[in-house]
Structures are given as structure tokens and as C-alpha cells.
Specification:
- By secondary structure, the chain is mainly alpha-helical.
- The chain folds into two domains: 173 residues, MFS general substrate transporter like domains (Growth Hormone, Chain: A, Up-down Bundle); 217 residues, MFS general substrate transporter like domains (Growth Hormone, Chain: A, Up-down Bundle), CATH 1.20.1250.
- The longest helix has 32 residues.
């Protein structure tokens, strides 16, 4: 076989699903624990007397701890192997859920989220396992499977939480212990099923002590080959994270949708994201390349966000202002400054518009993270993959910590349109930059 034929075969190599299946299943099971908890955290905090500011800080504590923990865990996995770091971090997550279930005060809730945030940074290690198990031609597809696991988790997790709460008469502690059960299952699967993917001879090649926080960001941004991709990850998640965080408030304000209707909307978006990350992103990457994927993802996301911003203010056909006001407290509506629609203007136009806008928003959002991470790993050696993915997670988490405060304040002060319009324009501005900074 000639060198040219070998190169051609390598460029067309398909993903070895048997090799990546264990980490996909483990990430999915691990994420079920997280996604079971997320819907009830605000209510859990409120039961201990937390005000909206404290609830926001509690929500931000998890990504903030990921910001510090992800680079450390990623670089430790480069030095000591993926499997032991993954196991230790999963044990930390288990401890966090157990503490959550035993919580008897708001301070204990914060402690549980801090521990879980530091441990939850293990997603960078899971991405490093995928990087070890793929080559450049199929890495985007492999990393897309991690994103698909996220999407499935956010579809299945809330359903499990709803069932547990309904069966236990809203026992929040029981939900936390169910999450701990899923965490324990992920530990057992990792221990008995996941092989080590970074052999000893490839470990410990990077030098220096792992940097954390702002120092790690400064060092990363000083490296031209990776700085643009890290900033791209931050601004992408700033926009898409804001979309996820504010969508329920937006639909309450614009369409009069309650929690149940919003759950259906999130499932709809989740199915699109799972399809994109689990199937289409790999095919598109092999056919068009990662540069095209980034530009297409930014374009689709910007269109989806801008279309969402201008959704007509028309309540859904089944809307009743009195019933919705009874479902939500007047104090909560006043705190977030949401004005509910009137009863005299209902119909399908607003909801139909939003369902159409959700398609490009979900497609673009589903494309970006695995594609950016794939491009990042192609800029460094295998010995640095865990560390660079840890930094990517750190930038991702920083955006998650900042977005609720920044775009939430804009929503509070200026209404429901500006946050989505601003996010869409930011994505639009990144398209020409990506054309010039990402090589062909």
C-alpha cells in the first residue's frame, strides 16, 4: 500500500463505537445525577429561605468551581492517566450528592454544590478519553457523542426527577439520593468497564505545575494557536448558555407558557441537539471539515437567537392569565419583572414562530462545543490533551457563571428582547473572525 493510499484511508477512518461506547454510557449515567438535581435546586434553596440573589449564587457556584477544577483534573489526567482521575472525581460527585440529600441548611446546600462543581469538572477527563480513542478525522464525531450524552441527560433527568417527586410527595432529599445512586453506578461502570486510554509512556510529558483560575486563562491566551478557540468557546457559551438560562422566562413573558409547556419545549430542543451531536456533526465534519462546521454553527445559532428575540407577543391558545398567576407567585413575577400577556390575544403564531426559531438555535448550539474542542486538541500533543480540554471546560464554565448575571440583568432592566438579540449579534460578529482565524 502506498503512502498516499494510507493517508487516504486515515482521512476517511470511521469512529470505533465499541471503543468510545463505555465513556459515552458512563458520561450519560453520571449526567443523569446532575440533570435530576438541576430542576429542583431553586425550590430546594427556597425551602431554606433563600432569596432570588442567593438562588442565583447557588446556581453559579457549580460552574465557578468547574472553572477552577477543570484545568487541574485535565492536567492530572495527562500525568497519571484518565481512569484514576475520573474515578476520584466521580467519588467527589457522589459525596456531593449525599451531602445534598442530608442538607439541613442553605450553607450545606452551597457546600454540596461546591464539592460537586470541583468534581464535575471531570467532563474534561471524559473528553480526553475520547481524544485518546479517536484520530483527527473522526474526533469531532467522538466529542459530539459526549454532547449527545449531555442532551439525553437533560431530556431523561428531569423526567426522573418529576417521577421521584410525584411518588415521594415532593421529597427533595430523596431526589438527591437517587442522583447519588446514578453517581455510584457511574463509578462502578468506570472501574469495571472503562480501560485506560493513556498508556504510561505517554504520561507526564507536560512540564510545570498546573495553573488555575485567571492565571491559567492568561497563560492559555498567550498561546496564539489556541487562544482564539478558547475565546470562541467562552463567547459561544455566553450566548447559548444565556439562551438556555433565560428561555423559560422569555416564554413566560412573551407567550404565557408555564413550567409544563416549557418542559416540552426543552425536550423538543434537546432532541434536536442529540440528533446533531450524536449523528450529524460527525458526518458534516468528515464531509465539510471543522472550519465549515464552526462557521455554519455560528450562523445557525445567530439566526436562531435573533428569530427568538423577535417572536411575536401572542399567548399560546390554552393560556389563562388567572390560572398562570395562580401557578406562580406574584412576588416572583415582580422580582424578575415579567409582565404576563393579556387573555384577549391568543393563538399559534407566537408558539409556531418560536418552534421554528428553536431549530437553528439548537442546531448551532449542538455543533459548536464538540467542534471547538476537536480543533483545540488538534493544536496540541496527545500529552497535553487533558490539560487543554480542562482549560476549554474552564472557559465554558466561566461563561456559565457570568451569563446568568449579565444577561439576566439585561432582561430585568430592558425586557425580554435585548438579551437574545445581543447574543445573536455576538455570534454574528464571530463569523468573519472565524473565517480569518481558522485555517482551511
Amino acid at each position: 500500500m502506498t503512502d498516499k493510499q494510507t493517508s487516504s484511508n486515515k482521512s476517511e477512518s470511521s469512529l470505533d463505537f465499541k471503543r468510545v461506547l463505555p465513556v459515552f454510557v458512563i458520561v450519560l449515567i453520571d449526567l443523569l445525577g446532575l440533570t435530576i438535581i438541576i430542576p429542583l435546586l431553586p425550590l430546594y434553596a427556597a425551602s431554606f429561605g433563600a432569596n432570588p440573589l442567593l438562588i442565583g449564587l447557588l446556581s453559579a457556584s457549580y460552574p465557578l468551581m468547574q472553572f477552577f477544577g477543570a484545568p487541574i483534573l485535565g492536567r492530572l489526567s495527562d500525568r497519571y492517566g484518565r481512569r484514576p482521575v475520573l474515578l476520584v472525581s466521580q467519588v467527589g460527585t457522589l459525596i456531593g450528592f449525599i451531602i445534598l440529600g442530608l442538607a439541613n441548611s442553605l450553607a450545606i446546600l452551597f457546600l454540596s454544590r461546591i464539592i460537586d462543581g470541583l468534581s464535575g469538572a471531570n467532563i474534561a477527563t471524559a473528553q480526553a478519553v475520547i481524544t485518546d480513542s479517536t484520530d483527527e478525522s473522526n474526533r469531532t464525531q467522538g466529542l459530539g457523542l459526549i454532547g449527545a450524552a449531555f442532551g439525553l441527560g437533560f431530556i431523561i433527568g428531569p423526567i426522573i426527577a418529576f417521577i421521584v417527586l410525584a411518588a415521594s410527595n415532593n421529597n427533595y432529599s430523596l431526589v438527591a439520593f437517587v442522583a447519588a445512586g446514578f453517581s455510584l453506578a457511574s463509578i462502578l461502570l468506570t472501574y469495571f468497564w472503562l480501560p485506560e486510554t493513556l498508556p504510561p509512556e505517554k504520561r507526564g510529558k507536560s512540564t510545570g505545575r498546573p495553573s488555575v483560575g485567571l492565571r491559567a486563562m492568561r497563560e492559555a491566551l498567550s498561546r496564539p494557536a489556541i487562544s482564539f478557540f478558547l475565546l470562541l468557546m467562552f463567547f459561544y457559551q455566553f450566548a447559548f448558555g444565556g439562551y438556555e438560562y433565560l428561555l423559560a422566562l422569555f416564554t413566560l413573558d412573551r407567550l404565557g407558557m408555564n413550567a409544563s409547556a416549557n418542559s416540552g419545549l426543552f425536550v423538543y430542543a434537546g432532541v434536536i441537539i442529540v440528533a446533531v451531536q450524536g449523528y450529524f456533526v460527525g458526518r458534516w465534519s468528515r464531509r465539510f471539515g471543522d472550519r465549515w462546521l464552526v462557521i455554519f454553527g455560528l450562523s445557525a445559532l445567530s439566526v436562531g437567537l435573533i428569530l427568538t428575540a423577535i417572536v411575536p407577543r401572542q399567548a399560546v391558545p390554552w393560556y389563562s392569565r388567572a390560572e398562570l398567576q395562580a401557578e406562580i407567585s406574584a412576588e416572583s413575577a415582580e422580582e424578575i419583572r415579567v409582565s404576563l400577556p393579556d387573555d384577549d390575544d391568543t393563538g399559534w403564531l407566537g408558539l409556531g414562530w418560536l418552534l421554528v426559531a428553536t431549530i437553528p438555535a439548537a442546531v448551532g448550539g449542538g455543533i459548536m462545543q464538540p467542534t471547538i474542542n476537536s480543533l483545540l486538541t488538534k493544536q496540541v500533543s496527545a500529552a497535553e490533551a487533558g490539560g487543554i480540554l480542562g482549560l476549554s471546560t474552564s472557559f465554558f464554565s466561566a461563561a456559565n457563571a457570568i451569563t446568568p448575571v449579565a444577561l439576566g440583568a439585561i432582561f430585568n432592566w430592558f425586557g425580554s428582547t435585548p438579551p437574545f438579540l445581543i447574543a445573536g449579534l455576538v455570534m454574528l460578529a464571530l463569523i468573519p473572525l472565524s473565517r480569518s482565524r481558522i485555517p482551511l
